[in-house]
């Protein structure tokens, strides 16, 4: 009997036979008590009574899939004789139950850059029906192409796996729907929420926004030489960057209040006569484990200022000449040098 057959439906049963004659063969029927079924007798044209099983209440195969009944036939003799037959009622399934997910929302946290095919989570839906009505298949539920390009769902197991590379810096959260469909076409839905966690996969990047070069050697200490932007697209400690200078350049780093910008300033006076240029390497290191680094090379040229006076080769020249030396005779040649360059280093005598 199908589980959706309405109450009041009748099912004819086989009639009993009694080989006696007269009242000894007159038969009546009895059905053991069961709230779901009753017995009705339909009298035929020859006076015999046809037993019929009457459905009294709605059936639900998922609650009770079968019934065991006993039908008794009693003759009219004295003493009466009876015979029994067992009636087994099997309730056949109807697709009256949709699939049911074990959760309404499935959540997972996965690291970015997982290899393709990595397991993210597994959804599970059960269906109380049997046969094809209870077989469940899984699929995406109206998701954009960007989701199906990054994830795949196994229609039989419900396993959700990566189909492309996840990138925390591009997107850190995904939310979409999955559907479970049984063989009869009934569908249910669940929601999937995936948080992508950051990996230290990006090195710090250093951008030179401004650079003052050449720099006059007489610039005061504290003069800004360069403005730098240091950025790491990772998050948390992976994106926290510290900087240091290598080399013996008379420069130091000053961090801006926002933290992204670094200012190179003169830490001590320049002297072109000691060094006409300075080459240094700015090294930025993030807080990941292992840490990643980025570098930038900076060359600062020092231009001359007139900060050096001419210097004679001797502080005093002593010359002995005869008194009759002729006019125009060279008495002595003095020399002076200037450490500056260009016009600043050209010496005139008087």
From TrEMBL:
<keyword id="KW-0106">Calcium</keyword>
<keyword id="KW-0472">Membrane</keyword>
<keyword id="KW-0732">Signal</keyword>
<feature type="domain" description="Cadherin">
    <location>
        <begin position="207"/>
        <end position="312"/>
    </location>
</feature>
<keyword id="KW-0677">Repeat</keyword>
<keyword id="KW-0812">Transmembrane</keyword>
<dbReference type="InterPro" id="IPR020894">
    <property type="entry name" value="Cadherin_CS"/>
</dbReference>
<dbReference type="GO" id="GO:0005886">
    <property type="term" value="C:plasma membrane"/>
</dbReference>
<keyword id="KW-0325">Glycoprotein</keyword>
<feature type="domain" description="Cadherin">
    <location>
        <begin position="313"/>
        <end position="350"/>
    </location>
</feature>
<dbReference type="GO" id="GO:0007156">
    <property type="term" value="P:homophilic cell adhesion via plasma membrane adhesion molecules"/>
</dbReference>
<keyword id="KW-1133">Transmembrane helix</keyword>
<dbReference type="Pfam" id="PF00028">
    <property type="entry name" value="Cadherin"/>
</dbReference>
<dbReference type="InterPro" id="IPR050174">
    <property type="entry name" value="Protocadherin/Cadherin-CA"/>
</dbReference>
<protein>
    <submittedName>
        <fullName>PCDGH protein</fullName>
    </submittedName>
</protein>
<dbReference type="InterPro" id="IPR002126">
    <property type="entry name" value="Cadherin-like_dom"/>
</dbReference>
<keyword id="KW-0130">Cell adhesion</keyword>
<dbReference type="GO" id="GO:0005509">
    <property type="term" value="F:calcium ion binding"/>
</dbReference>
<feature type="domain" description="Cadherin">
    <location>
        <begin position="102"/>
        <end position="206"/>
    </location>
</feature>
<feature type="domain" description="Cadherin">
    <location>
        <begin position="16"/>
        <end position="101"/>
    </location>
</feature>
<dbReference type="InterPro" id="IPR015919">
    <property type="entry name" value="Cadherin-like_sf"/>
</dbReference>
<keyword id="KW-1003">Cell membrane</keyword>
């Amino acid at each position: 009997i199908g589980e959706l057959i309405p109450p009041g439906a009748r099912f004819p049963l086989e009639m009993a036979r009694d080989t006696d004659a007269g009242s000894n063969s007159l038969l009546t029927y009895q059905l053991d008590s069961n709230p779901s079924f009753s017995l009705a007798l339909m009298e035929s044209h020859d006076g015999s009574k046809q037993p019929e099983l009457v459905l009294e209440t709605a059936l639900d195969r998922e609650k009770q899939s079968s019934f065991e009944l006993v039908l008794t036939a009693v003759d009219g003799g004295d003493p009466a004789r009876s015979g029994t037959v067992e009636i087994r009622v099997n309730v056949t399934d109807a697709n009256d139950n949709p699939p049911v997910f074990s959760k309404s929302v499935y959540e997972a946290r996965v690291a970015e850059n997982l290899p393709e095919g990595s397991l993210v989570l597994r959804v599970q839906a059960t269906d109380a029906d049997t046969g094809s009505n209870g077989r469940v298949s899984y699929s995406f539920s109206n998701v954009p192409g960007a989701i199906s390009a990054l994830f795949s769902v196994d229609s039989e197991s419900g396993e959700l796996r990566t189909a492309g590379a996840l990138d925390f810096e591009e997107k850190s959260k995904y939310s979409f729907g999955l559907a479970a469909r049984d063989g009869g076409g009934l569908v249910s839905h669940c929601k999937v929420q995936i948080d992508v966690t950051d990996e230290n996969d990006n090195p710090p990047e250093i951008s030179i926004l401004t650079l003052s070069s050449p720099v006059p050697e007489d610039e005061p200490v504290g003069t800004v030489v360069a403005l730098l932007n240091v950025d790491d697209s990772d998050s948390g400690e992976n994106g926290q960057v510290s900087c240091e200078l290598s080399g013996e350049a008379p420069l130091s780093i000053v961090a801006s209040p926002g933290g992204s910008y670094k200012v190179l300033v003169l830490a001590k006076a320049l002297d072109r006569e000691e060094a006409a240029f300075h080459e240094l390497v700015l090294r930025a290191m993030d807080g990941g484990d292992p840490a990643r680094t980025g570098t930038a090379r900076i060359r600062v040229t020092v231009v001359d200022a007139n900060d050096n006076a001419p210097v004679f080769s001797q502080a005093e020249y002593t010359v002995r000449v005869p008194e009759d030396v002729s006019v125009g005779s060279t008495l002595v040649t003095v020399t002076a040098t200037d450490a500056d360059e260009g016009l600043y280093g050209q010496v005139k005598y008087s």
